[in-house]
Design brief:
- The protein is an alpha+beta fold.
- Helix content is about 30%, strand content about 30%.
- It has a single domain, classed as OB fold (Dihydrolipoamide Acetyltransferase, E2P).
- A hairpin with a 5-residue loop joins strand 4 and strand 5.
- Helix 2 runs antiparallel to helix 3.
- The protein is globular.
- The C terminus is likely disordered.
Length: about 140
Amino acid sequence: MNRLFLIIMLLVSSPAPSLAVETIHGEFQAVVTWVIDGDSIRFRRIGSEKEDECRMLHYNAPEMTGRERPEGRKTAKKLIGLIRNRSILVWGLERDRYGRLLCEVRLMDGTYINHIMRDFLKDYKRRDIYIWKEKGQKHRGDK
């Protein structure tokens, strides 16, 4: 009887395992580990060995396949040139349906990468497709 009581007490007093998905809120420092395409990167948060994916906000890069491939490759190369192997500040509050953190990225000197990429895409013929910003929406990089 005492043994059964002890087991029940241990089970009741033990914290339940967490079933929640890890979320990342706010701004944090990270290192870019891979540029997936012109608007998605992999990063490793400083102090962690785990990699995560980020979908950069406020623009939509051309795809890396199909007829958009040439523009997609140029856009990815531009992003690689800006952030490859660099420390960055990531700001994000939620994840998309693919599990990627929706984020804004800036360099340690404060340069907003999302703005640079958005401006870079203004030169493309189909720019209306690539500039993504909801009507009236402000974001952290707006002046």
